[in-house]
Design a protein that fits this description.
Elements: H1 2-9, H2 35-60, H3 74-82, E1 89-91, H4 97-103, H5 107-114, H6 138-152, E2 159-164, H7 171-182, E3 187-193, E4 196-197, E5 200-201, H8 202-205, H9 214-218, E6 221-226, H10 230-245, E7 251-256, H11 276-283, H12 287-297, H13 303-326, H14 332-339, H15 345-358
Bound molecules: thiamine diphosphate and magnesium ion.
Length: 360
């Protein structure tokens, strides 16, 4: 049995295209992207890093509510989202707001979500997504269901969902991948392995050597990818999408990544569970630094271009937070109206009461 386990584990070597120096190490798997696409990937990573920095500052000023930092995870989040089509369906976790933004969620709505305003959960018509899930792993089961629905309707689309390394210990994780495998549903399951579930290191989470190998028991494809390498993440997600829409079933993708910030802005202190050495080891793998080097080598990126993106991001964020402030405050009656299609009679009474109060 030990031999069986070892032979499975040896198949899950990390897939990479760009190394830490921004050099291509795997020419054969280089995805087919135009120069414009390559620049767009960089633009989005720079923009998202600024959005993260500003969101942390706004949270500290009391102008945002719940916020889970994203710096370090840009390649994992944006490389996978870039492989999607507009009609694909995203089932995100709480850290996956950037994917929604690049799929078309306006910034002010992302800020309203952070503030707990119901309008932050109302996806625009062109954004097919659920709101970011706080319950760990719950979206994995939902993704299997959404994907099966697509298959039954004969759609050429996929459902993509995200969880973390910690999420793979939940029962829902196994149920989701198993169900999708059984029905060969067009689902893409991403595990962003940022090494920690709040303060618990992945080594304490499981005895499995990789999280990707969990696909084997479900009888589906699984792959571990360098989550700091946006080209590699894009390539494996695109491949998973192609196979899914061709009826070849779901894929589990483990992205090896790191979050530089705290778990959320609610007050955990990463210095109590991570060492400086560990932080700096991962900062050397930074997805922006690596991709910038690659693009500069191709004369596709410059400091001026980067500064332009930074200014654009700051400007957009300033406007969006103003829009957020100006958006009507949510009322108790709004919450009741959004929760039920038909109000039960006891709530109908309360609704009248609140309407009366709110009209004053
Ligand atoms: C079912 C459930 N159990 C516990 C929690 C509390 N909780 C919130 S985040 C978290 C850690 C999740 O870590 P991971 O899956 O690695 O995702 P990351 O935050 O690192 O992206 C836990 C235990 C929860 N939200 N839901
Ligand atoms: Mg984690």
């Amino acid at each position: 049995m030990k031999y069986v386990l070892e032979s499975v584990e040896s198949q899950f070597e990390m897939f990479q295209i760009l190394n830490e120096d921004g050099k291509i190490v795997n020419k054969d798997d280089m995805p087919d992207l135009s120069d414009e696409d390559l620049k767009e990937l960089m633009r989005r990573m720079v923009y998202t890093r600024i959005l993260d920095q500003r969101s942390i500052a706004l949270n500290r000023q009391g102008r945002l509510g719940f916020y889970a930092p994203t710096a370090g995870q840009e390649a994992s989040q944006l490389g996978s989202q870039f492989a999607l089509e507009q009609d694909d369906f995203i089932l995100p976790g709480y850290r996956d707001v950037p994917q929604l933004i690049w799929q078309g969620l306006p910034l002010y709505q992302a800020f309203l979500f952070s503030r707990g305003h119901y309008h932050g959960n109302q996806m625009p018509e062109n954004v097919r997504a659920l709101s970011p899930q706080i319950i760990i792993g719950a979206q994995y089961v939902q993704a299997a269901g959404v994907a099966l629905g697509m298959k039954k309707r004969g759609k050429k689309t996929v459902a993509i969902t995200y969880t973390g390394d910690g999420g793979t210990s939940q029962g829902d994780f196994y149920e989701g991948i198993n169900f999708a495998g059984a029905y060969q549903a067009p689902a893409i399951f991403i595990v962003q392995n940022n090494r920690f579930a709040i303060s618990v290191p992945v080594e304490k989470q499981t005895n499995a050597k990789t999280l990707a190998q969990k696909a084997v028991a479900a009888g589906i494809e699984g792959i571990q990818v360098d989550g700091m390498d946006i080209l590699a993440v894009y390539a494996v997600t695109k491949d998973a999408r192609n196979r899914a829409v061709n009826g070849e079933g779901p894929t589990l993708i483990e992205t090896m990544t790191y979050r530089y910030g705290p778990h959320t802005m609610a007050g955990d202190d990463p210095t109590r569970y991570r060492t400086d050495d560990q932080d700096s080891e991962w900062e050397k793998k930074d997805p922006l630094v690596r991709f910038r080097k690659f693009l500069e080598g191709k004369k596709l990126w410059s400091e001026e271009e980067e500064n332009k993106v930074i200014e654009e991001a700051k400007d957009d964020i300033k406007k969006a937070i103003k829009e957020t402030d100006a958006y009507p405050k949510q009322k108790v009656t709004d919450l009741m109206e959004n929760m039920f299609e038909e109000l039960p009679s006891n709530l109908q009474e309360q609704m009248e009461e609140y309407k009366e109060k709110e009209s004053k």
